[in-house]
Amino acid sequence: MTWQLVESNGIRYCRSQLLADFPWLQQGFSTRDQAPGGRAAAETEQEYRRRFFGLFQLTPEQTQLVKQVHGDTVLKVEELRPGKEWPEADAMITNRPGIGLATVHADCVPVILVDPVHRAIAAVHAGWKGTLAGIIRKTVARLGVEYGSVPAECYAAIGPAIGSCCYRVSPERVALFAEKWPELDLTASRQESTLDLALINQKFLENCGFPPEQIDNARLCTACHHGDFYSFRREQVTGRMLSLVVMK
Ligand SMILES: [Zn+2]
Fold it and tell me: Does domain 4-247 have CATH number 3.30.360.10?
């Protein structure tokens, strides 16, 4: 499905059309360029976050962020503890309405998982290390343990991330994936080796039992669409986009 570009209160963000069908759910992925009257040069990251979360009727105090460390820790969020240091994790799950889950991205894959039957959500930050570690599989398993989620009943949105078009890596890195996860059917070629991290996460979800039609992969490359997104690969020093999900 094509992701929708939405503009609200001077902020442009995109969202999965598939997940937009759930009236009790809100999700969005911020862009780099804000509309006229939007992010001014002087606006700090904190102010921008406040404004972005506000689009979803959330304050920063109602939104859980984590210290992302490219690991595979899944945090269960039951209550917000404003002022406390962010815990180290790269995925979060919750079944509490009104608690926003937000991850921060420049090229790494943002994944949102939704269980409409048990009303639970997850937000995942999957860079190459987290993807290799199987963080998405771990998050699906944790949703099952904590909330009784069944993959066949769940939905997923895979947001803008660096595409294989722009993500050249060493053959050794492709081999790491191929060896650890033969199910992915990856073959490393000596001439050109690339990784499609969004597609790999999609395959993991399908292998976990997500029906393909319940997975919405944006297929938007953050490096190709540099007018819309920040790309660490392309720019080295860059800003970050926010991926957010919340149940009303
Ligand atoms: Zn690209």
Answer: no
What's the pLDDT tens digit per position in 42-52?
577 888 899 99
CA of 161 to the centre of ligand 1 (A): 9
Tens digit of pLDDT for each residue in 162-176? 999 999 999 899 999
What's the gap in Å between 229 CA and the centre of ligand 1? 11
How far is ligand 1, taken at its centre, from the CA of residue 34, in Å?
21
| Across 25-34, 112-121, 167-176, 198-207, least confident range | 25-34
3-state secondary structure the chain: CCCEEEEECCEEEEECCCHHHCCCEEEEEECCCCCCCCCCCCCCHHHHHHHHHHCCCCCHHHEECCECCCCCCEEECCCCCCCCCCCECCEEEECCCCCEEEEEECCCEEEEEEECCCCEEEEEEECHHHHHHCHHHHHHHHHHHHHCCCHHHCEEEECCECCCCCCECCHHHHHHHHHHCHHHCCCCCCCCCECCHHHHHHHHHHHHCCCHHHEEECCCECCCCCCCCCCHHHHCCCCCEEEEEEEC
Distance (Å) from CA 224 to ligand 1 centroid: 4
| Stated pTM of the model | 0.93
Question: Rounded to the nearest whole angstrom, what is the distance from the C-alpha of residue 175 to the centroid of ligand 1?
Answer: 22
Q: Tell me the CA–centroid distance for residue 245 and ligand 1, in Å.
A: 25
CA of 5 to the centre of ligand 1 (A): 19
